[in-house]
Amino acid sequence: MAMPECSEKLSHGEPTFFVRKKVFAMFANNHHDDGHVAIWIPAAPGVQGALIKAAPETFFRPPYVGVRGWVGIELEAISDEELASYIREAWQMLAPKRLKATRDAKVV
After folding, report:
1. Which three-class secondary structure string do you get for 36-78?
2. DSSP state of 33
3. 34: enclosing H helix or E strand
4. In angstroms, what CA-CA distances link 58 with 12, 38, 62, 101?
């Protein structure tokens, strides 16, 4: 929620995070009894497969959005700092250019 223009609302029964009207992170609590307590985020082309190959205990291909390159991240298998970094990257992928420029100007 620290990212500019973020909002949270329930979607499919789980907390989902938006930048304006675009989803950049979804919480999944044992979705359809799949055993994962995770965050689903979009990933750049090619990143999903590389992450899953490098750390299959941490990353997985989530249902529905996995075909579009999204990646699931097991919450018990990742540090808060690393998770925050992935969430910031997801926000950056979907935030409008002007909004990213505003955020970047504040960070400097």
Report:
1. CEEEEECCCCCHHHHHHHHCCCCEECCCCCHHHCCEEEEHHHC
2. G
3. none
4. 23, 9, 12, 31
pTM of the model: 0.85
Residue 31, classed as helix, strand or coil, is helix
Sign, CA dihedral 8-9-14-18, equals negative
Average pLDDT over residues 82-102: 88
Rg (CA), the chain: 14
Does pLDDT of 62 surpass 80? yes
Closest to 18 measured CA to CA, from 31, 28, 5, 37: 5
Going by C-alpha positions, the residue among 54, 77, 73, 57 that lies closest to residue 65 is: 73
- pLDDT value at residue 4: 78
Q: Which two tokens stand for residue 99?
A: 């909004």
The H or E element that residue 84 is part of is helix 80-94
Whether the CB-CB separation of 18 and 9 falls below 8 Å is answered with yes
